[in-house]
Amino acid sequence: MAADQPVVLVVEDEHAQREVLAYNLEAEGFRVAHAVNGEEALLLVDEEAPDLVVLDWMLPNVSGIEVCRQIKSRPETRGVPIIMLSARTEEVDRVRGLETGADDYVVKPYSVVELMARVRAQLRRTRPAAVGQQLVYEDILLDSETHKVFRAEQPLKLGPTEFRLLATFMEKPGRVWTREQLLDRVWGRDIYVDTRTVDVHIGRLRKALCQHGGSDPLRTVRGAGYALG
């Protein structure tokens, strides 16, 4: 599996529902993490740093609503999209779910095809490169579907690691990424790579971006990491 695959956390206590969701999400090319209750969900949000959470309202002990509230109340996880699943059909319940911070609300029983479309719609907002979108920053264009990069309309030669690094930066221009965060996103959590390897590939990316001239768009933030712009 590619290290930069979007991670979807499925929080569902019903085994059959959880398996159906995981099967379909994996078929869409996502990496899936599972939680069966609210406490486990909150732990996995920290451990897995998911790109999206599919969250059932009715969970044992800590409810989906409370999980949603906690995720959205923390600055480091506030931006993670949450799709709330619920058998509650009343308008007041939908409103409560959305006001608690859910980005979308889907009533059970739901169409799996429609739910997958809603997942992709949320990820187009937060991880556009991972779902085949073109990204543009100043004179740089990255096409994640064709795996091509252009600067000032001239094609650039990038290795696969440099391509994933650039996609990560272009999804969130201005954000400062630590070396550890870049390792998790670009190389994957299960692979041991020295943080100095990040510096080597950043150097290669800088060289590639300036191969036809132009200023270096990457910024080194002392004691923190790297940013685009």
From TrEMBL:
Residues 132-229 bind DNA. SMART domains: REC, Trans_reg_C. GO terms for biological process: phosphate ion transport; regulation of DNA-templated transcription. GO terms for cellular component: cytosol; protein-DNA complex. Coiled coil: none annotated. It is found in: Cytoplasm. Signal peptide: none annotated. Keywords: Activator, Cytoplasm, DNA-binding, Phosphate transport, Phosphoprotein, Transcription, Transcription regulation, Transport, Two-component regulatory system. PROSITE patterns: OMPR_PHOB, RESPONSE_REGULATORY. Residues 132-229 form the OmpR/PhoB-type domain. Residues 7-123 form the Response regulatory domain. The modification 4-aspartylphosphate is found at residue 56. This protein is a positive regulator for the phosphate regulon. Transcription of this operon is positively regulated by PhoB and PhoR when phosphate is limited. This is Phosphate regulon transcriptional regulatory protein PhoB. It comes from Rhodosalinus halophilus.
